[in-house]
Amino acid sequence: MSEVPSSHAKRRPDRAALFIAPVLFLLACVIWWDAGRLAEVTNYSRIGPATVPHVVAIGLALLAVWTAFEAWRGDFPEREPVEVQPVVMIVAGLAGQMLLLKTAGFSIATGVLFALTAFGFGRRKLWISLPIGIALSFVIYVIFGRFLQLSLPTGPLEHLFF
């Protein structure tokens, strides 16, 4: 006679996944509702701008049901502990970019985001990653702002060259 392993039999429902499942379903409902508004705009064809959002909403709803089922059975693998410091550094980089974008311009603000994200991923030398990030961001600014004529926020570095 084969017995069910005791670790599998004693697993409880995964509370985090049971929280995620209704959030996925709510997101599916919002996408379905918004796609329904798109369908009112054009009704000359069966396939239109609402088709893909409806498919995405159905996929999310199925994923929500599957997530709830797996969570209730306790079939999700054990999660590794979350390291808070890298997450904080990446969020700080995003906040820094948002705060600096209008005053410092695209290149410097995005360079700060690059440096803090690299720091969060383990690259501890900010004095190297910050100038590299600013240089790469400046190249991106030149490509998108000058060659493609997109409107990007300018700062002192961009005004220095253009």
From TrEMBL:
<keyword id="KW-1133">Transmembrane helix</keyword>
<keyword id="KW-0472">Membrane</keyword>
<feature type="transmembrane region" description="Helical">
    <location>
        <begin position="89"/>
        <end position="119"/>
    </location>
</feature>
<dbReference type="Pfam" id="PF07331">
    <property type="entry name" value="TctB"/>
</dbReference>
<feature type="domain" description="DUF1468">
    <location>
        <begin position="20"/>
        <end position="153"/>
    </location>
</feature>
<feature type="transmembrane region" description="Helical">
    <location>
        <begin position="16"/>
        <end position="35"/>
    </location>
</feature>
<dbReference type="InterPro" id="IPR009936">
    <property type="entry name" value="DUF1468"/>
</dbReference>
<feature type="transmembrane region" description="Helical">
    <location>
        <begin position="126"/>
        <end position="144"/>
    </location>
</feature>
<protein>
    <submittedName>
        <fullName>Tripartite tricarboxylate transporter TctB family protein</fullName>
    </submittedName>
</protein>
<feature type="transmembrane region" description="Helical">
    <location>
        <begin position="47"/>
        <end position="69"/>
    </location>
</feature>
<keyword id="KW-0812">Transmembrane</keyword>
